[in-house]
Amino acid sequence: MSSYKNTRICYLPDHVIVRDVQNVLNAEGGGETKADQAIRGRITYTAGVFMEYVEALTRVRSSGRVNLGRYPYGM
Q1: What is the pTM of this model?
Q2: Rounded Cα distance, 30 and 43, in Å
């Protein structure tokens, strides 16, 4: 585990590692190779998960439970 001072880290369960980057994600519309299709699918999936976190954490912040005036720096 690693973190930095004065942050509110929220680790996400998904990440994307793009290997052979020179040969994927280049063509408009994509889907030229199986590798390209796979990485585009993973990016779409992970972006969807990330957007769910955005919605959930927006509700947390707007709930009033987060007091940025009193505790502005996280850990």
Answers
A1: 0.71
A2: 12
> Token pair of 42, please?
């993973």
Q: Is residue 35 part of a domain?
A: yes
Residue 43 has pLDDT above 60, yes or no: yes
For residue 27, the enclosing domain spans: 21-62
pLDDT in tens, 8-20: 778 888 888 898 8
CB 4 within 8 A of CB 74: no
Instruction: Report the C-alpha gap between 9 and 75 in whole angstroms.
Output: 9
Number of domains making up the chain: 1
Tokens linked to 75: 């850990």
Assigned domain for 28 exists: yes
| Secondary-structure breakdown of the chain: helix, strand, coil percentages, each rounded to the nearest 5 | 45, 0, 55
